[in-house]
Amino acid sequence: MVLVLALGDLHVPHRAADLPPKFKSMLVPGKIQHVICTGNLCVKEVHDYLKTVCPDLHIALGEYDEETRYPETKTLTIGQFKLGVGHGHQVIPWGDLDSLAMLQRQLDVDILVTGHTHQFTAYKHEAGVVINPGSATGSYSSINYDVNPSFVLMDIDGLRVVVYVYELIDGEVKVDKIDFKKTTASST
Amino acid sequence: MLIANGIEDEDKWLAEGIAGIQHSAFYLHRALDSNNLREALKYSAQLLSELRTSRLSPHKYYELYMRAFDELRRLEMFFKDENRHGCPVVDLYELVQHAGNILPRLYLLCTVGSIYIKSKETPAKDVLKDLVEMCRGVQHPIRGLFLRSYLAQISRDKLPDIASDYEGEGDTFMDAVEFVLQNFAEMNKLWVRMQHQGSLREKEKLDKERNELRDLVGKNLHVLSQIEGVDLDIYRDTVLPKVLEQVVNCKDELAQYYLMDCIIQVFPDEYHLQTLETLLGAFPQLQSAVDIKTVLSRLMERLSNYAASSPEVLPDFLQVEAFTKLSNAIGKVIEAQVDMPIVGAITLYVSLLTFTLHVHPDRLDYVDQVLGACVKKLSGKAKLQDSRATKQVVALLSTPLEKYNNIVTALTLSNYPRVMDHLDAATNKVMAIVIIQSIMKNNTCVSTSDKVEVLFELIKGLIKDMDGTSTDELDEEDFKEEQNSVARLMHMLYNDDPEEMLNIMNTVWKYIMAGGSKRLPFTVPPLVFSALKLVRRLHGQDGDVAGEEVPATPKKIFQLLNQIIEALSVVPAPELALRLYLQCAEAANDCDLEPVTYEFFTQAFVLYEEEVADSKAQVTAIHLIIGTLQRMNVFGVENRDTLTHKATGYSAKLLKKPDQCRAVYACSHLFWVDDQDGIKDGERVLLCLKRSLRIANAAQQMVNVTRGSSGPVTLFVEILNKYLYFFEKGSPQITTAAIQGLIELIKTEMQSDSSTSNPASDAFFASTLRYIQFQKQKGGAMGEKYDPIKL
């Protein structure tokens, strides 16, 4: 069982002061094995904070990030799954699942994690899963009016991944989960 | 050399003294074992003679004393048992006075006196009085102090206190009080006399020795506090005045400092509260060198803790007007001690402020008064340089923040900003950060533009260059942290009422616009997003009342936004400004304001044309423009055409061919919007795709020419995917033939001799084909659509 935290679009300090305290108290160091971040942190302090949650940190470049050396896209293998991450502002139309599926095919990954829309989605199609963890701070988005702070925790176990989404709605943390199973193991 | 010798000598003398005691003790024990009173007296006197030495420092003398003390305990047991020596205690009392030298004589007398009191054959007070007077015979400071200390020790449990065994006819606790007071007074006199013993050169050594003895003197006060009979009235009417008299009259700074502090620590806080005037009245009478401020601070600290732990006594504080008395006392002290360094005065105010916050937290006027006194002290002088003093001022200003947990309360203290004005620029900034942290920690919302104004005045050190400093001097990391704090702060400024919110934003803008080119990139974005949030709130509301002049409208806010973003040109920060203009465009689109939206796009394009030169930045920028434009629904045909034309034009002009290709096919989406009344112009979509295909071809040829091999087919696969996208959307111009042709083209390219295999593009193509296969197998309408395509 491998826990992967996926979050992004924090927009600290441009659009939000900090992660919600309820989220911070949940993100205890040492419990999570990998962190995937869709970008738009935007400042070093957020980077440092995420590093304390888990040192294996993968960040894609968002259009407001202070650190411009993050990669535009990144792929990594965790267990039987190939994951890819990008911020998502490069995929037009923004939030369009078919266009995102193309990126997924291009990166050749089972799980694609992108952001930009500040809207949580988990979309399953024949080649895999497209996940958007939303905005961890619930920050303003021109695309999505009704933004609640959210992040995603993936539990990867063999050929199965359970995607837990945590959303802060009216001061309470609500959890939902979605199951995905790979049909075949990753080819080399 | 001499000093080392001195210490060595002392050790030698001590050893000699101890040996002497042990020698006499041997014979004493023999005498005690054989119940020989005469011998016992002889050898005990001999033993005690060792204490007649003047050669030892207090520290060493104490060791000698303790040996003698132990032996005296044995002797006391012997004396007590009349059966052993056959001498009644009253006679014994007489007998010991025949000892040759006065010091042994008095030690023996005290020892017998103890038994005498225990026997109750005579009132305790008589014996005590006798002893305390007789001890006057020893005027040598160290010897006398230890002797009287011995007296205090053995009499301790025999004082005639209320409900003690020794209370009786004519024997009251007042006698005990008098006894202790007298012993105290004599001991103090001896102690003070020590300072005249040595030369001026030895003053430091002397002070050290005196300090070693101070607890002997102070113990008496402790005993006084333990006497049951001493209640508030006795304390106030007898004990305190007499003790203070001693303290003031001895005119010795070492003693005064120690004893004042002792009084404060030893007696109950309740007493101090009720005798505050008397106590405070003593301070001006003390020697000028006494560190009064420390003592006063400790007093206030005790009273603060008292108030904190026993809230029921708070009315007493008000009744005795504690605040006023303390405030006046401090004022007098500061006035009297003209040489007091500034840090001393401020420390006093910090203690007074802590006291006030504990005891009278609701009296903001008191708090302001303390700050005002501080301002007065600081005015007329240059800005504080002394780091200890500035630390104290920061403590002074931080304490109300911590207490009230609400910056808004602190903002009402009129003297608060005045104190801050006296800090140097660096400390001012430190304080500003403290204020911001307090707000963030407590999640305080600052909700009116007036309060925002006061707040920003307080933190002005962070917002603009103060006189004499410039941002160049700052460490870059520190500067970033500072400015990010200010950015975070801006999210705490909020009001539900749109008009007030607009006022707040105008106030904030007023302050940050003067921040200079280094600060604007940090402070502008949060303000812009605050404004955009307000716009969203406004157009979410059901329409404005027609004809009424509404102060806060989206249009007005967009005008402000224009101003704000324009200011970034001085930095210059074109990429940031471009992004912000696009954000505004989207917001204006949602408000249905076509001209405003168009204007924002114009600004964005102008920046792109004139300022964004870096090729990588151009790629990102053009994608942002395309992405935003794709979502616009407010434009009429003409405006939309102009903008899409510009976008596609710039896309084709990017530096690198692959970037051109990708941007151009991204533009295809400008002509197809999935909404019900969105544009669906299949022809122009196809034009874009064909154009991107031409560019991809050209890119391949270039690679061929420059590297002698064909490049990766990735671009073709991407374009294929786009064809599929619009094919599925139902664009009639995308034919299966075209798709088939593209597939063949890619296969050919991959198999050609000059191709180098590229795993990534191979995998991409493979997964694309898998996708087509999947769609074919779906059956239904989709399966039918895909049927003509052969893999």
Structure description:
- The complex is a heterodimer of chains A (about 190) and B (about 800).
- By secondary structure, chain A is mainly β.
- Chain A is built from three helices and eleven strands; from the N terminus they run βαβαβββαββββββ.
- In chain A, the strands form two sheets. In chain A, strands 3-2-1-9-10-11 form a six-stranded mixed β-sheet, with helices on one face. In chain A, strands 4-5-6-8-7 form a five-stranded mixed β-sheet, covered by helices on one side.
- Chain B is mostly helical and about 800 residues long.
- The longest helix of chain B has about 30 residues, at about 1-35.
- The interface of A and B includes residues 44, 92 and 101 of A.
- Largest sheet data of chain A: 6 strands, mixed
Which percent range describes the beta-strand content of chain A? 35-45%
Specify the structural class of chain A: mainly beta
Instruction: Please report which band the strand proportion of chain B falls in: under 5%, 5-15%, 15-25%, 25-35%, 35-45% or over 45%.
Output: under 5%
Characterize the overall form of chain B. Answer: elongated
What is Rg of chain A? Answer: 15 Å
How many extended strands of chain A?
11
Biggest interface, CB < 8 A: A-B, 31 and 45 residues
Note the total helix count of chain B.
Answer: 39
Determine the N-to-C terminus distance of chain B: 105 Å
- Oligomeric description of these chains: heterodimer
Mean pLDDT of chain A: 93
How many strands in all of chain B? 0
Succession of helices and strands of chain A:
EHEHEEEHEEEEEE
What class, by secondary structure content of chain B?
A: mainly alpha
Per DSSP, the total helix count of chain A is: 3
- Give the low-pLDDT segments of chain A: none
How helical, in percent, are the residues of chain B?
over 70%
Q: State Rg of chain B.
A: 46 Å
Separation, N- and C-terminal Cα atoms of chain A: 22 Å
Organism (chain B): Olea europaea subsp. europaea
Function (chain B): Plays a role in vesicular protein sorting.
Family (chain B): Belongs to the VPS35 family.
Membrane topology (chain B): Peripheral membrane protein
